[in-house]
Amino acid sequence: MKRRDFLTSAAAALAVSGGGLMWAGKAFAAQTPPRLQMPPRIDTRASGRLALTAQAGSSNFLGGRAVPTVGYSQAYLGPTVIMQNGPLAAEIGNTLGEPVSVHWHGMKIAGAHDGGPHQPVLPGQSWKPEMQVNQDPSTIWYHSHIHQRTAQQVYNGLAGVIHVTDGRDDDRGLPSAYGIDDLTLVLQDRSFDRKGRMVYDPSMMDRMHGFHGNRMLINGQSGAIAAVPNGIARLRLLNGSNARIYNLFFNDGHPMHLVATDGGFLPRPITLEVLRLAPGERAEILVDFSGAGAPVLMSDPDQAYSLLEFARDETLPARITRLPDEIGSPLEELTGLETRSREISLDMGMGMMMGRGGFAINGQPFDMDRIDFNVALGSVERWIVRSSMIAHPFHVHGVQFRVLSEDGAPPRPENAGWKDTLLVPGVAEILARFEHPASKENPFMLHCHILEHEDAGMMAQFTVS
Ligand code: C2O
Ligand code: CU
Ligand code: CU
After folding, report:
1. Selection from 7, 12, 14, 9 nearest residue 251 by Cα
2. Domain around 171
3. Of 282, 308, 327, which residue is a domain's last?
4. Residues of the chain with pLDDT under 70
5. How far, in Å, from the CA of 115 to the mean position of ligand 1?
6. Domain boundary among 296, 327, 358
7. Interval 308-347: pLDDT, tens
8. What atom in ligand 1 is closest to the CA of residue 445?
9. Looking at the CA of 158, which ligand is closest?
10. What contacts 315, CB < 8 A, 6 or more positions away?
11. Does some domain include residue 151?
């Protein structure tokens, strides 16, 4: 069973690395585990330009043999892109043998720039959207989005992180030194065979529940240790997994102070012991590592497994040593502005029990040639989103939304801010203002972010005009 392998390897990793390891301290073992690397950075702020190329490469994840992978401008995953509001001219190249795309997940831009299934970059071609970035500082991301190939392409490496920044994090009292006290962490479970090769071979069960791996990769690395200063660090977490939902916590009970959700900052930190993060979701948390031992980020308190160990490095500057009381301005209220409501059901029908069909939205599997509905440009709509059979992470392109209710109750504290992806176990009500146009040639998508479900048809498309 995959689950068992996963737990065994996690337990082994814990056993190997246990015992108060300190980076610059005395208790340092002879066999140093590798230090976690951040993705390289591309800062677009001065140039207003961004070039990314989908390319093939090979990666050595488990210290054994290198396996073929893909990435944007590197062998696996892509660089962290730093953006600010204003014009951004992107140029996306593709040296692979199949169409790919770059979808800007979480960006509030027009449908023509969205990078979804209607904007494929064919082999040898390029795509040059001239975008206007105009949104709150946030941790968003980009990934390929070719219909029926998204799961495989993202799994193989076509994804990366974006920081939208306004350069004012010092005023907010937030850590902002990349890779020092501001860590970008891409959480992905991947499956490896006995020879250490990464494999993607979804069974019928995997298609039903989404593909789950048997090992954790953080930023494409396995078993690395994250170095942190003797102070407060900011962790920008992206669940870049195809289907796995994390319930994150620290093994030593270290609290997590949530400061930002998908679309931007909360007014003030929310302290959590467990943070749920579904595929496609991001969260920014502050963690006070001062005086700590070596906390391990774990998932699933009931059946715990480890994701990432932290160790203090006394040579890193501890710039931030107290939690900010306030971070952002109060969240804008959209209630009372809605023009209409719409029911969205995320369907898993009985047909899929037979291994095919059944994945749909409002009874209809995705069809690239069918526009499912139109939203009036500039309007606020209330969507009532219902999941069938299992909890589905619901995502909408082109907007950030607010959660009004979850299963009839007020939203969970961690869903109180701006969201573009929301795990819906039962029913949720959301409000969104549709500020960017999308034509029938370049519509926006809404879909389940379990990538196997999306590829199987749990996706719809809408225009905004
Ligand atoms: Cu993260 Cu439609 O995608
Ligand atoms: Cu998206
Ligand atoms: Cu789903």
Report:
1. 14
2. 1-327
3. 327
4. 1-31, 292, 350-357
5. 9
6. 327
7. 999 999 999 999 999 999 998 899 999 999 999 999 999 9
8. 2
9. 1
10. 24
11. yes
- Three-state secondary-structure class, residue 456: helix
Judge contact between 366 and 254, C-beta under 8 A. no
67 in contact with ligand 1, CB cutoff 6 A: no
**Residue of the nearest CA to atom 1 in ligand 1?**
105
Q: Over the stretch 38-66, which tens digit does the pLDDT of each residue have?
A: 999 999 999 999 999 999 999 999 877 88
Q: How far is the CA of 394 from the centre of ligand 3 (A)?
A: 8
* Ligand 1 closest atom vs CA 105: 1
With 0-12 / 13-18 / 19 or more C-beta atoms within 10 angstroms meaning exposed / middle / buried, residue 140 is buried
Amino acid 193: pLDDT: 92
Q: Are residues 9 and 156 in the same domain?
A: yes
Q: Are residues 404 and 321 located together in one domain of the fold?
A: no
Residue 104 lies in a domain: yes
pLDDT value for 13: 38
- What type of residue sits at position 389? M
pLDDT at residue 383, rounded to an integer: 98
Do residues 49 and 117 both lie within one domain?
yes
Instruction: Indicate which atom in ligand 1 lies nearest the CA of residue 141.
Output: 1
Q: State how far the Cα of 190 lies from the Cα of 184, in Å rounded to an integer.
A: 19
Pair of tokens at residue 376: 């009036």
Q: Is the CB of 147 under 6 A from ligand 1?
A: no
What's the total number of domains in the chain?
Answer: 2
**pLDDT score, position 7:** 35
Residues 253 and 308 placed together within one structural domain of the fold? yes
- CATH number of the CATH domain containing 394: 2.60.40.420
| Whether residue 305 sits in one domain with residue 344 | no
Q: Which residue has 């831009």 as its token pair?
A: 109
Locate the ligand 1 atom nearest the alpha carbon of residue 103 and give its number: 3
Q: Is the CB of 103 under 6 A from ligand 1?
A: yes
Give the pLDDT score at 356: 54
* 453 touches ligand 1 (CB under 6 Å): no
Kindly state whether residue 206 falls inside one of the protein's structural domains. yes
* Beta carbon of 447 within 6 Å of any ligand 1 atom: yes
Amino acid at 89: A
C-alpha of residue 390 to centroid of ligand 3, in Å: 7
Q: 174: which 2 tokens?
A: 């937030």
* 64 and 197, same domain (yes or no): yes
Q: What is the pLDDT of residue 2?
A: 38
Token pair for 106: 């979480």
